[in-house]
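Task card 7
Instruction: Convert sequence to structure tokens.
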Amino acid sequence: MAKTWPAPAVEEEKRLVPCALCGEQSFRPFLSCEGFFYVRCALCDLVQINPQPLEAEIKRRYGEHYLAYELDNEDSFFNLQILGLKDTDFCGLENGLSAKSEKKRVLDIGCATGKLLAHLREKGWQTTGVEISGPQADYCRQKRNLDVRSLPLAENRFPPASFDAVLASHLIEHLNDPAGMVAEVSRILVPGGRFFVTTPNIAGFQARLFKTRWRSAIPDHLYLFSVKTLSRLLAEKGFAIEKTVTWGGLAAGTAPAPIKRLADRAAKRFGFGDVVMIRAVNSTPK
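Output:
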């Protein structure tokens, strides 16, 4: 099964870290992939690369080659994001804000080439993006005239309650400190604001079937969440889960088309899809 991204070409400095979800420092072997491995927390079951590269090493990964990759896949990624937002009723939030004549302020963390932000701007949203890949941030600003910041989320020092909605699609699994990111999202969201977070699902059918050959078991994914572990992280940082969807029963090319369509429908209906998206409401008082 084709991986979504190759291993880093250079040796990176790594260190052992406590579990990002519960702080435990005891782990069990989980997946031994080529050149790296995943462990599972003995207490909360969060799957993670450990030891993991330092934050400075992670930042160095996202250069010009990542822009080329995102541009090559821009349309398919955008279409999947739109379908996910539809499944989690982003339009209901959008219409509710419009009905109350409020500003509609959205932040997209890890906004890549900015196609989704440009679409939301056309829909009347006040848009801001965060993208630590310099070439991608430059592309957003120069080609799409978007307000996109190149610093990591917390370093932008957004004021409290700056946004009505925050999006993070296929980002949280890349971060050294996913819990810190979720806490910062809670701080910059208005009370009652929504967080839409998307990530590969380690408890999905494809992950269980393909194991080390699963397309999302790659060095860039420092954490592999399930619905259970992602929901717990969000809840511990002040969010209430409103809706959870999964999709992707079988990857393209792994089964005949009729079987794939059946598997995809079943994955969405019964919650064992390859990707999970959660809509969570910020219940932390300001």
